[in-house]
């Protein structure tokens, strides 16, 4: 089928984007990532204004960065995601629990929920990861892993399995990432001091919205009804 | 419904002070007001505004020395290296040569930036022309339009219309989606849509943002910066140090410098053995570290896994102690 190759590319692109965003949130920018970013070309007109703005802010920052850019970015990573207070309002804390618990605490229900999902998907965190499992980097990585499984299923001709993984991605976006990230995105315009992390906030926001729309189209999910999301049988084209 | 709204009509004639029987005369209000505007005379204005006194380069440098213990000589050496215009890369290399094995958290770039802020260096940026021929390592992920993705999956649309290919700029993906959404029914329409999607070669570049190459920073020492270097580096500060307290410790300094000048340098432990039993070190009690620190502060010695003498230290050793006997 003519479209097969291209749908696979779409899935690959989505997975790459989730991996890319996950890496940017996970730790500070190191030399290797910096070199990669410098060598990259960033799409200027993606059709999503937030993604365009985010890419532009990141490119503008990198284009005017001074020689100690890695130090500056490391310092700003702290400003953005760690902060220096204990009120719960000193940074854009990258944890779902903080934004979904009344007292803005870590390791709350949201963490338990995503941990259950990860385990259901056969995933365990690596020993090197010392943070909560509801960290945005892990949630983005989870989306990437589901996307990779969807791609694998699609390449093997298991279309229903592919759609099932994409549906899982959609619900994870709906119930988790898409539900709390907008609040973090707002904080990411307050606390970072460089356009790099402010741009990352806008870029992620735009991408999550865009990807949710894509999943709705592919899965033929109708607009959110008042009672909830209506899912219809996905169309099948693969013979 | 209309009657309901009458309940919320504002009664403009309502006077909250009516019951209190307070007559507020608008003409007298200025005089009876509790708050009186202050009156300023021209003299007051002069007294209020105090010009901001910016700290001198010397003061700012001294603050840097205090704030960065152990980095004084590295800071001064950086200024000294910038007597002539030098690029940051060259400055970094030269500093690394002068201070091998330095484990400071302050990178040469940070040192230069701090010195520029203190007024000891001036910086110039030189833009590098973009090398358009250079190959890019990769593209950042583009977006697949949702409608196009659905079309690719469900309807088997042609690939170029669904997702950004190298010859198709990311900017047209939305258009691709729009086409898929509205439906392309005839072959002619499909061809037309495909042609519209393919961006000409010269426009592809515009569809991407590229990080500009970093500008090269050149540094040049300022006059004030060089004055600080002359005051703190060289032979004079070392001579002053070894003659402290009327030259009471000159022979000790000589021993320390000689030990550091020996091949392989020296350590504090070895020096303590050499200096042991010297009556001048009994009261107040002094150990080798006291003299090592003093000599390091004036750049007569440097720590290179052992204490080693510098060129300036060797000059002092040769000039000051060459003909002196009994020291």
Mean pLDDT of chain B: 75
Low-confidence stretches of chain A: 1-5, 225-239
Radius of gyration of chain B: 38 Å
The residue fraction in helices of chain B comes out at: 40-55%
Distance between the termini of chain A: 8 Å
Biggest pleated sheet of chain B: 3 strands, antiparallel
Task: Please outline the helices and strands.
The complex is a heterodimer of chains A (239) and B (327).
Chain A: H1 4-26, H2 31-39, E1 40-43, H3 49-63, H4 69-81, H5 96-100, H6 109-120, H7 136-155, H8 159-187, H9 195-219
Helix pairs in contact in A: 1-7, 1-9, 3-9, 7-8, 8-9
Chain B: H1 2-6, H2 29-32, H3 42-48, H4 57-67, H5 72-81, E1 86-87, H6 88-98, H7 108-118, E2 121-126, E3 138-139, H8 146-154, H9 159-162, H10 173-182, H11 187-197, H12 201-204, E4 208-210, E5 216-221, H13 223-232, H14 235-242, H15 244-247, H16 250-261, H17 268-275, H18 288-297, E6 301-303, E7 307-309, H19 311-321
Antiparallel strand pairs in B: 1-5, 2-5, 6-7
Helix pairs in contact in B: 5-6, 5-7, 5-13, 8-10, 16-19
Describe the structure.
- The complex is a heterodimer of chains A (239) and B (327).
- Mean pLDDT of chain A is 89; it is low at 1-5 and 225-239.
- The radius of gyration of chain A is 18 Å and the shape is globular.
- Helices cover 63% and strands 2% of the residues of chain A.
- Chain A contains nine helices and one strand.
- Chain B is mainly alpha-helical and 327 residues long.
- Helices cover 49% and strands 8% of the residues of chain B.
- Chain B has 19 helices and seven strands.
- A three-stranded antiparallel sheet of chain B has the order 1-5-2.
- The chains are: A mainly alpha (239), B mainly alpha (327).
- The interface between A and B is large, with 52 and 49 residues.
């Amino acid at each position: 089928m003519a479209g097969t190759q291209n749908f696979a590319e779409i899935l690959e692109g989505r997975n790459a984007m989730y991996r890319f965003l996950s890496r940017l949130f996970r730790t500070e920018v190191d030399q290797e990532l910096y070199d990669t970013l410098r060598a990259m070309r960033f799409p200027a007109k993606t059709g999503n204004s937030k993604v365009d703005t985010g890419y532009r802010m990141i490119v503008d920052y990198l284009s005017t960065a001074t020689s100690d850019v890695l130090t500056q970015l490391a310092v700003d990573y702290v400003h953005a995601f760690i902060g220096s207070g204990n009120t719960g309002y000193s940074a854009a804390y990258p944890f779902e629990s903080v934004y979904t618990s009344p007292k803005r605490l870590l390791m709350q229900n949201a963490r338990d929920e995503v941990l259950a999902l990860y385990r259901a998907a056969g995933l365990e965190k690596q020993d090197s990861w010392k943070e909560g499992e509801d960290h945005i980097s892990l949630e983005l990585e989870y989306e990437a892993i589901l996307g990779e499984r969807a791609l694998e299923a699609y390449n093997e001709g298991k279309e229903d399995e592919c759609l099932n993984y994409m549906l899982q991605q959609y619900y994870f976006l709906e119930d988790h990432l898409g539900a709390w990230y907008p609040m973090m995105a707002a904080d990411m315009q307050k606390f970072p001091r460089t356009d790099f992390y402010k741009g990352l906030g806008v870029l992620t926001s735009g991408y999550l919205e865009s990807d949710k729309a894509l999943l709705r189209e592919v899965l033929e999910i109708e607009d959110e009804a008042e009672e909830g999301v209506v899912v219809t049988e996905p169309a099948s084209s693969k013979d | 419904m209309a009657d309901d709204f009458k309940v919320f009509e504002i009664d403009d004639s309502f006077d909250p002070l009516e019951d209190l029987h307070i007559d507020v005369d608008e003409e007298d209000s200025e005089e009876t007001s509790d708050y009186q505007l202050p009156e300023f005379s021209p003299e007051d204005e002069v007294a209020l505004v105090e010009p901001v006194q910016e700290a001198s380069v010397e003061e700012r440098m001294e603050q840097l020395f205090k704030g960065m213990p152990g980095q004084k000589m590295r800071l001064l050496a950086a200024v000294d290296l910038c007597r002539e215009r030098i690029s940051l890369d060259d400055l970094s290399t030269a500093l690394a040569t002068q201070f091998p094995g330095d484990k400071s958290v302050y990178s040469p770039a940070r040192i230069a930036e701090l010195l520029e802020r203190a007024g000891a260096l001036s910086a110039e940026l030189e833009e590098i022309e973009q090398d358009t021929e250079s190959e890019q390592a990769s593209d950042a992920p583009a977006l697949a339009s949702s409608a196009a993705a659905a079309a690719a999956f469900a309807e088997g649309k042609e690939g170029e219309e669904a997702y950004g290919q190298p010859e198709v700029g990311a900017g047209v993906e939305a258009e691709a989606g729009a086409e898929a959404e509205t439906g392309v029914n005839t072959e002619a329409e499909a061809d037309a849509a495909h042609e519209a999607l393919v961006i000409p070669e010269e426009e592809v570049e515009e569809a991407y943002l590229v990080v500009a190459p970093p500008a090269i920073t050149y540094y040049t020492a300022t006059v004030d910066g060089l004055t600080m270097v002359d005051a703190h580096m060289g032979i004079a500060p070392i001579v002053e140090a070894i003659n402290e307290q009327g030259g009471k410790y000159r022979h000790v300094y000589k021993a320390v410098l000689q030990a550091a000048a020996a091949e392989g340098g020296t350590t504090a432990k070895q020096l303590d053995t050499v200096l042991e039993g010297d009556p001048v070190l009994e009261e107040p009690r002094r150990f080798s570290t006291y003299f090592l620190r003093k000599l390091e502060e004036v750049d007569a010695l440097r720590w290179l896994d052992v204490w080693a003498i510098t060129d300036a230290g060797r000059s002092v050793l040769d000039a000051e102690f060459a003909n002196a006997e009994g020291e």
